[in-house]
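Lab channel / #folding
Pinned by the channel admin:
"Please post every new chain as: sequence first, then the structure tokens as a reply. Keep commentary short and put observations after the output so the thread stays searchable."

First post following the new format, from NK:
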Amino acid sequence: MTVDEFKQALFSRAVSGDLRVIIGQGVELNDLMTMQHLSLSYQKLGFSVSIEEAGKVHDQVDHSHQCSVHKHNRQNVLISKPARVTDTLYTAWLSIQDENELLQDHMTGQHIQGMVLTESARQMMLSVTENFYLAEEERGNRYFVLNRVNSEYINFTFPLDVRIDFVIHSLNKNKRGVIKAKSKAILYQGATHLAEIDIDYSVYDKAFISDRESELASDVVASFFAKLDAVSKAA
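Reply from TO:
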């Protein structure tokens, strides 16, 4: 049932009896608030309405969480706040918003596309590292570099609950604060194994990377025009 269908059913009193509502993908905070408001009216008729997993929707509008996944636009946040399970295992929920950038130009069938899962794994890597492996003064001041990403899609993912387990296989931080890490995100829908995404990455001081990036860009531009000049002279 879509959010609009649920709201219409409550508004028109087309349903009766106690309700247990499980939040799927694509539900945003304003949808949830409308559902909760309508549920109060429904409860006055003597029925109960239980809306489960509402907390992960509230994470969509948490500014510090948005910053930790490096997104300027709130609708592009794909995960709930990661929770620490052990020293190397963290977990969160997939929380897709209707206006997410990855849904605007490519949707086929009923399943969630693989790139959404890969991006959710990348956001887990960012958020876990920002929140659990960087000092407070380092957060928001580091540049993340992807060294290797390998995605294996095992089963179709449908717009229901998806749990993301994120495992740090190795993480080393040197005296300059540079991090080298290997990680894996494993996604489940109930007992169904959906996907595994391996991410090897590095974390640097922003100033260092900015200077290095400018230097490399200048070298590439100079080399490009030198080759053009050589071709022109040869002609």
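NK: The first helix runs from residue 3 to 11.
TO: also worth noting, The mean pLDDT is 87.
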